[in-house]
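pinning this so it doesn't scroll away 📌
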Amino acid sequence: MRLAGRVAIITGGDTGIGKAISLAFAHEGASVVVDYFGDEQPATALVNEIENFGGKASAVAADISKEDEVGELIAQAVKHFGGVDIMVNNAGIEHKEPFLQTPLELWNKVIAINLTGAWLCSQAAAKQMVKQKRGGRIINISSVHEELAMPTNAPYCASKGGIRMLMRTIAIELAEYGITVNDVCPGAVDTPMDEKLKADRIEYTALLAEIPLRRMAKPQEIAELCAFLASDAGAYITGASYIIDGGMTKQSGSL
């Protein structure tokens, strides 16, 4: 198992891509801390699922846009499993709105969770990793929209562009401690969040036409890339953005 003996925190780890990462890491032997916000039931069910196949997991509620709650998230990982080796910044939100009608409140909320949350979690996790003196991995679930514009989604695109430069900068600063930092940049992923899109046949057909492989990614495919980057095989990779989009950005318009 590629991640045996390691402790991983996955923010927003109870649903969608985060759930797939939590399961993949647990199957690879990691002890998984499932961060969630709001309803406890999905996180509890996921922990039970992991424990039922012999894995180790714990659910911790934390609003990653708040420094004190992020600190407690790290503290709980240390308390339950003895440290932090892998930090996956997966939690994020988006809400489409034309730029001229986007209220400041919406901008602030998206930036707080998507970018400030990644900053807080990366810093807190890195401090713990430095203290442990055994290196570590920070993996951001970014998006193709850290490069590809998406009209009516300016706050989201700005947050992902910010994550790209945050990743590149701290990858250099943390290299001396053996901590790698990378972005995983999915295109369209088949998660419950996209049920409304899939129900709109015209919009869904238009989306698939932009993807050379003519399908959305499975969450498990994103998780497998994360597992690779978190493993020893990814030890020499840092400061990189990994596009995983079925070829979409090679021919896409602005979706």
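📌 and the second one:
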Amino acid sequence: PMGSFSTGGTGTGAGLGSQGALAMSQDGRHLVVVNPGSDDVTLFRSAGPGHLQLQDVAATGGQRPTSVAIHRDLVYALNADSDDLTGFRIVGSSLQPIGRFALSGSGVAAAQVGFDPQGGHVVVTERATNQILVFPVESDGSLGTPTASASVAPTPFGFQFGRTGTLVVSEAAGGQPGLSA
């Protein structure tokens, strides 16, 4: 271990049931972390290998943030218990709120939020609805109306974009042993 750093927030003491509880900016300058027990996110600045400086702690306005994504100066946190996303813009050393954006409904059990490689879309997997939501990112950093796509198999969970921009999604098959894909 290179060290440990206080986030200025609290956890829940339990597993998050999500992917992406922390995210590093592509240039390596910023690290954003969820604090699901205090309903906020923490912004760190990288001060070299093994050194982080706490910059800001910002309330999401939602309940139990469990996943976070960053692209350039935009940050989106997934609030698992309030079924929404909270957007922020990094301005200097602070997180400035952009707004909150609803997922497809209530009790969707969202697992991960992330940006596409170009930062033009925000993607969310919803386990309970078996949907993948794709929100366009507007010029002001807010999110437009999402497009929902059915997952190929039940329980879309974590995801990653490949080198060619292809979205690859892991599917948990309702948690049944040996059936994940």
